[in-house]
Structures are given as structure tokens and as C-alpha cells.
Design goal:
The complex is a heterodimer of chains A (372) and B (136). Chain A has 372 residues and is of the alpha/beta class. Chain A contains eleven helices and 18 strands. Chain A is 30% helix and 25% strand. In chain A, helix 4 packs across helix 5 and helix 7 runs parallel beside helix 8. Chain B has 136 residues and is of the alpha+beta class. Chain B has one domain: Nonspecific Lipid-transfer Protein, Chain A. The termini of chain B are close together. Classes of the chains: A alpha/beta (372), B alpha+beta (136).
């Protein structure tokens, strides 16, 4: 019998205000849920979007949506993972039953989207309670910026024992999203030329995905020199400073005047989305993975749609099916094709979550990790 | 590194070239566009306006840094790209589709000029070869 547990967590109470650390109560996992003791949680721009209100979600909320840890308890009916199993926490509790899940797109699951928008678990409600006994929401059915989290069992994916938790945490979002943008949505083929706009947490993984796919040229566009350097270490063949040159002109020039076969936008501004579309070659593909606030529109040239025949699309989670894709990514990691340890450049205790956000915003870290 | 180091250099090169056009064979064609044409440049930031004159030649005047509230046509582009365009090294349709050049106004009037610009491109290339005109 699992009883009430207490855990410290990074809680957002007001948009635009600093996050705070609270000691919350955590109810036992319900049917189909597991309690995970979190060992590491990635700090992602999407958490920041929530904190600023650019991605408005119900408050108060425990932030964090990529993490790794150990299963501490399981709810009714859970056969896997087992207690003691190391797991990666994914933020996509797809139901397996809706139109999209049955059609092979669990990343578009209706029930998961419904739960995420309400800051609850698919099973209903949230297991967090604050000092006053009031419910505290959790980000995308994950809420990994905490000492522990109750998540759907389907979101706790078994992890091999030899992978550091700090690296494994990245698999939960940025790796699946970034590599998926290149490998699945972008369908990068061997020998193709790829341009990645934004070399942050997701963009760097898109670069790795393009490299794994066999791209012959990978152009990374980022305003920060540290990120451009890191992009080169992870597989970029060329880098562009958008403050120094028009990135569309630069990409077109670097691709024999054609534009890239595939461009991936990992910033989330209307300007970079338009630039990524404009930098793709005629008949090429442009994938938007950066997240803009919901009220933002993008202007592209209408004539370009028929005259250049490009595909403009996007993806929310790299079109990933975490249960299917995670084992393959672990294999890439073990074989040295997917570099993750190098990205964990700084660890912060939970109490310094706000400092971790600041470091990410300043480009001082490739990926900040919170270690409870 | 931008082709034009600063606004002054852009005006010394591209601006000076533009000033050769009002008295040349293409002056009347440009005049027939029918209204002011504003070029807005970035990297470096600069603005040049062609204002049609009555009873030319010269067919139009070249103004710098002017604020024309409602030009007939407005072209906004990176200065590097403008440098390429006037040398004939840019596909205008492609540049418009890629939003490398943003046009506002009745573009068709300007597009009528395009097939006749080949000699102008050559003139700009020759102009760049002149002493001290070519940017670094």
C-alpha cells in the first residue's frame, strides 16, 4: 500500500513571476499511473513559455516535462514498468484508442492534448496538493521539476542501467522532438542539405538527427557563438550568425543557390519561421518545431506557395511515439552517434531553478539540468 | 561582412550609380512607372527615393534618407541583395517569393521594367569597376 508522499517541486504561481520551491503532498498513483522518484529534469524553453504565459496553462503548476528517475510505486493494473525500474519520463500520454493514435500519430493524441491543456493526468485530476490542500497542476502530465512525480505508466519508459540520468532526462523531450523533426517530419535523406534555425536544446538535437540521417551538409543558424561552436561539435558543417548576415541569403549561397532540401525551425518566432520557409529550396520541406505564443501569426509570400512548391509543416513532439522511438535513440547513444553527455553542461539544484532559466536564456548552457 | 560597410558607402556607390540613371536611356522608362519609388535597405540601414520630375531629362530626382509617406512602390531589402540585383545576379521573382525583397505597391508597373534592365545591370558592373567605386 502506497501512502501519501511529500516532495519538493518547482511551482509556478503567477505568469511572469519567478518560480518558487514548495513542499507539496503527492497522492498515491491511481490506476494506470506510477510514482517516479526523479533523478534529473531538463530545463526547456517550453517550461519558460509556460512561466511567461506565452503558453498559458492552468496555475499553480509544477513545471518540467522531461526527466529520468526510478519507479517508486505503481498504481492498480500497472504491469510495466515495475518498482525499481529506471525510466525516462515522456510528456505524451497517448491513449492508443483515439482517431490519431489508431492512425499511427500518438503525438497528436486527443486525450493527451486535452490533459495537457488542463494540466491534469489523463486519468483525471492531479495528484499534487499544496500546503492548503489545494490541487496543483502538472505540466503535460509530467511535472518533472520535483523530487518525485506521479505520471501515466505509459509515460514512464524503461531505461537501460548504464545511462546517466542527467543525459537520459533529455530523451524525454528535446531529443525526441529535435531528432524527430529531422528524421520523421523532415524525412531527411542521405546526402541532403539541411538548415537548422536555432541551435538551442531542440535545434541541436535536430542537427544530430540530420547527421544520423546522413545529411551531407548541415547549416546551423544561431546568434550565439557558443551555440554555433556546439552545433559544429554535434554535426553542423556550416554555421551562420544571423546578426552578421541575412540567414536566407546565407543558406541559399551555401547550397549552390538553391536553398536547403529541408529546413528546421527551432526558435519559435514568426521571423525565423518565415526565414526557414524562405531558405528551403523549391520543392523542399520546412519543419517548424519552435513554439510561438498561440496568438502569433506568420506572414509568408503567397506567390511562393504555388511557384516554389515547398512543404511547410510542423511537429509537436517530433512525430514521436516514445515507446517505439526511445529504444532506438538509446542505441544511437550507446553507439556514439547521439551525443548527450556533452550537452549537460550545468546542473542546478531545484532551489536554483530560476537561475537555470536565466542561464538558458543567456545561452550560458547547452542544456541545464535540475537535480533534486 | 556586409558589402557596404556603412550607409555613406552605400550612398557613394549605389546612390551615385542611381544618379546616373535619370539622364540615361532608361530614365524615361523609370519615369513611366508613374510615381515615387522608395528603396529601403538594411545592413546598413539606408533609404533612397526616386521622385519623378516633370519635363525631364532628368526624368527623376534621387533623394537620400527621405521620409516618403506614401511612395507608389516600396522595395525593402538587404543592401547586399540590392548590390547583387543591380549587377543582374538575382532572380527577382525568387527573391520576392523568399521575402528577400519585400515589395509594396503596384508591382506590375515595376515588373514591366525588368526585361529592359539588362543594360542597367551592365552599367552598374562597369560603374563598380570605376576607380574607387567598388565596395570591399
Amino acid at each position: 500500500m502506497v501512502g501519501l508522499r511529500h516532495a519538493r517541486a518547482v511551482v509556478l504561481r503567477e505568469y511572469g513571476e519567478p518560480v518558487c520551491i514548495e513542499r507539496l503532498s503527492l497522492l498515491p498513483p491511481g490506476p494506470g499511473e506510477v510514482l517516479v522518484r526523479i533523478a534529473a529534469s531538463g530545463v526547456c524553453h517550453t517550461d519558460l513559455h509556460v512561466a511567461t504565459g506565452d503558453l498559458p496553462l492552468p496555475l499553480p503548476m509544477v513545471l518540467g516535462h522531461e526527466g529520468a528517475g526510478v519507479v517508486e510505486a505503481v498504481g492498480e493494473g500497472v504491469t510495466t514498468p515495475a518498482v525499481g525500474q529506471r525510466v525516462v519520463v515522456s510528456w505524451m500520454p497517448s491513449c492508443g484508442e483515439c482517431f490519431w493514435c489508431r492512425g499511427g500519430r500518438p503525438d497528436l493524441c486527443e486525450r493527451a492534448a486535452h490533459a495537457a491543456a488542463r494540466g491534469i493526468l489523463p486519468g483525471g485530476g492531479t495528484r499534487w496538493r499544496d500546503a492548503g490542500g489545494e490541487p496543483v497542476h502538472q505540466f503535460s502530465a509530467a511535472g518533472t521539476m520535483a523530487e518525485a512525480a506521479v505520471v501515466p505508466a505509459a509515460c514512464a519508459l524503461p531505461l537501460p542501467g548504464d545511462m546517466p540520468a542527467t543525459s537520459a532526462a533529455l530523451l524525454g523531450c528535446s531529443v525526441l522532438t529535435g531528432t524527430g523533426a529531422a528524421l520523421r517530419t523532415g524525412r531527411v535523406q542521405p546526402g541532403e542539405r539541411v538548415a537548422v534555425f536555432g541551435a538551442g536544446g531542440v535545434g541541436l538535437q535536430a542537427i544530430q538527427g540530420a547527421r544520423i540521417a546522413g545529411a551531407s551538409q548541415i547549416i546551423a543558424i544561431d546568434r550565439l557563438p557558443e551555440r554555433r561552436d556546439l552545433a559544429m561539435r554535434l554535426g553542423a558543417t556550416d554555421v551562420v550568425d544571423p546578426l552578421d548576415a541575412d540567414p536566407v541569403v546565407a543558406v541559399v549561397d551555401l547550397t549552390e543557390g538553391r536553398g536547403a532540401d529541408c529546413t528546421i525551425e527551432a526558435v519559435g518566432t514568426p521571423e525565423t519561421i518565415a526565414a526557414a520557409f524562405n531558405a528551403a529550396r523549391r520543392g523542399g520541406r520546412s519543419v517548424v518545431v519552435g513554439v510561438c505564443p498561440p496568438e502569433v501569426d506568420v506572414a509568408i509570400n503567397a506567390f511562393a506557395l504555388p511557384s516554389q512548391g515547398k512543404t511547410l509543416t510542423g511537429c509537436w513532439y517530433g512525430e514521436s511515439d516514445p515507446a517505439r522511438d526511445l529504444p532506438q535513440l538509446v542505441e544511437h547513444y550507446r553507439a556514439g552517434r547521439l551525443l548527450l553527455d556533452e550537452l549537460v553542461t550545468r546542473r542546478f539544484p531545484l532551489e536554483e531553478a530560476q537561475a537555470a532559466f536565466a542561464a538558458m536564456m543567456a545561452g550560458q548552457v547547452a542544456r541545464a539540468i535540475l537535480v533534486p | 561582412m556586409p558589402v557596404f560597410a556603412d550607409r555613406d558607402q552605400l550612398y557613394r556607390v549605389l546612390g551615385a550609380f542611381f544618379e546616373t540613371l535619370p539622364d540615361g536611356p532608361h530614365g524615361p522608362l523609370i519615369h513611366r512607372v508613374g510615381g515615387p519609388i522608395l528603396f529601403v535597405f538594411h545592413r546598413p540601414e539606408a533609404r533612397i527615393l526616386w521622385e519623378p520630375l516633370a519635363g525631364g531629362p532628368p526624368e527623376f530626382a534621387v533623394h537620400y534618407d527621405t521620409e516618403q509617406p506614401e511612395p507608389l512602390l516600396r522595395f525593402e531589402q538587404d543592401a547586399d541583395l540590392a548590390h547583387r540585383f543591380w549587377q543582374g545576379d538575382l532572380d527577382l521573382q525568387d527573391a520576392l517569393a523568399r521575402q528577400q525583397i519585400r515589395a509594396r505597391g503596384p508591382l506590375a508597373r515595376a515588373m514591366k521594367l525588368i526585361p529592359q534592365l539588362d543594360p542597367v545591370y551592365g552599367a552598374y558592373r562597369a560603374f563598380l569597376q570605376a576607380d574607387g567605386a567598388a565596395p570591399a
